[in-house]
Design a protein that fits this description.
This protein has one helix at 2-21, and strands at residues 31-32, 34-40, 48-49, 51-57, 66-70, 85-89, 92-94, 96-97, 105-110, 113-117, 127-133, 144-145, 150-157, 162-170, 186-190, 206-207, 221-229, 235-241, 245-246, 249-250, 255-259, 267-275, 280-281, 294-296, 303-308, 312-324, 338-344. The protein is mainly β. It has a seven-stranded mixed beta sheet with strand order 1-14-13-5-10-9-8, with no helix packed on it. The protein has a five-stranded antiparallel beta sheet with strand order 2-4-11-6-7, with no helix packed on it. Strand 6 and strand 7 form a beta hairpin. Residues 1-28 have low confidence and may be disordered.
């Protein structure tokens, strides 16, 4: 009976010691990576893609340890090598080579596994590890080809002490084709369709005005024109018509060479200035310095007087008309009808 009690007592003591000791026995287990992601440049099946893998390492990496990235079957590693990869420790770029040497880490691809190997380099616990693979890496030229559509787990492991998976979803097509149409636009307006010089004189130049009285005795705009377009090739504005005419009599047009108003000489010409948009007046009708010179090239009618080289907001053109007569200019009622056309170059 005593023998039984001794054996029983020893058994109880062993059990109690085991209960007390077991909590202090540490079992080595890999920690799980956290905040893990893989941002890919494309997720379309059978398409080349970059990978931007990030995760937090609770343990960090000691010297002589490895970090592995294992791509599941279906991903084609192609010619990816260490030159197509970047490894960062909390944003600090770690130098890579085909094999490790002191603080330079080795980076190699074998089958579906990329292995980063440390010689003396370390990564502290809690660091954010970032791995770029493909053309997003500095100097990278090769990419990994995606597998067929489906869900895949990329595994993080190695001897550095942490592990985990990152799930990516591959689609049959990852792009959406979006279309839109912008309607063509051309606007054109003339502020006044009836202007006049009043009574011309051989001793003073006259400028047409919108009130037809011809009260302009210096460079005066008779009306404005406004134009705009969304054409990538812009617009052109031309003028067509005739010089001042009274029956068989005419007042000589200035011609293709711009000239200053000269009293006692028959002259009829126009000049344009402009503001806003990207339109401009066309030579020889584009003198922008007072006092202006004028031209009227009937030989090339319809003649371009303004244009824009591309799409333009509204440009406002001020149009000036000058007339002079000689002492022998025939009496009569003179008129001139000018047609302005704006053409969109779509």
């Amino acid at each position: 009976m005593k023998k039984f009690n001794v054996i029983t007592s020893l058994g109880l003591i062993i059990v109690m010691l085991a209960v007390l000791i077991l909590p202090f026995i540490q079992v080595a287990q890999a920690a799980a990576i956290t905040s893990a992601s893989d941002t890919m440049s494309r997720v379309k099946a059978s398409t080349l893609a970059n990978h931007d893998i990030q995760f937090t390492s609770p343990t960090g990496a000691a010297a002589a340890s490895t970090i592995t990235v294992t791509f599941p079957a279906g991903f084609t590693m192609g010619s990816v090598a260490f030159g197509d990869m970047d490894l960062f420790d909390d944003g600090v770029d770690i130098t890579l080579a085909a094999t490790c040497a002191t603080t330079t880490w080795g980076a190699a691809v074998a089958g579906q596994v990329i292995t980063f190997t440390s010689c003396t380099g370390t990564i502290t616990a809690g660091s954010v590890i970032r791995i770029k693979i493909g053309t997003n890496a500095a100097g990278g030229v090769n990419q990994i080809t995606n597998p067929a559509a489906g869900s895949y787990a990329i595994s993080i492991g190695g001897t550095f002490g942490d592990s985990g998976n990152i799930t990516v979803q591959i689609l049959a097509d990852d792009q959406v084709a979006v279309s839109a149409t912008v309607a063509q636009s051309l606007t054109f307006s003339i502020s006044d369709n009836t202007i006049g010089f009043g009574t011309l004189s051989s001793t003073a130049s006259r400028w047409a005005t919108g009130d037809e009285a011809g009260t302009g005795t210096a460079d005066t705009a008779a009306h404005t024109m406004a134009a705009s377009t969304n054409s990538g090739s812009g617009y052109t504005i031309t003028v067509n018509g005739n010089t001042l005419t009274s029956g068989a009599y005419t007042i000589t047009a200035i011609g293709a060479t711009a000239a200053s108003p000269t009293t006692g000489t028959e002259q009829y010409g126009i000049n344009l200035t402009y503001t806003g948009g990207s339109g401009t007046a066309t030579a020889p009708y584009n003198d922008a310095t007072l006092p202006y010179t004028y031209a009227f090239d009937t030989a090339t009618f319809p003649d371009e007087v303004a244009s824009s080289a591309g799409a333009s907001d509204t440009t406002t053109y001020s149009v000036y008309y000058v007339a002079n007569i000689a002492g022998a200019t025939e009496a009569g009622s003179y008129t001139s009808t000018l047609t302005y056309i704006a053409t969109g170059n779509f």
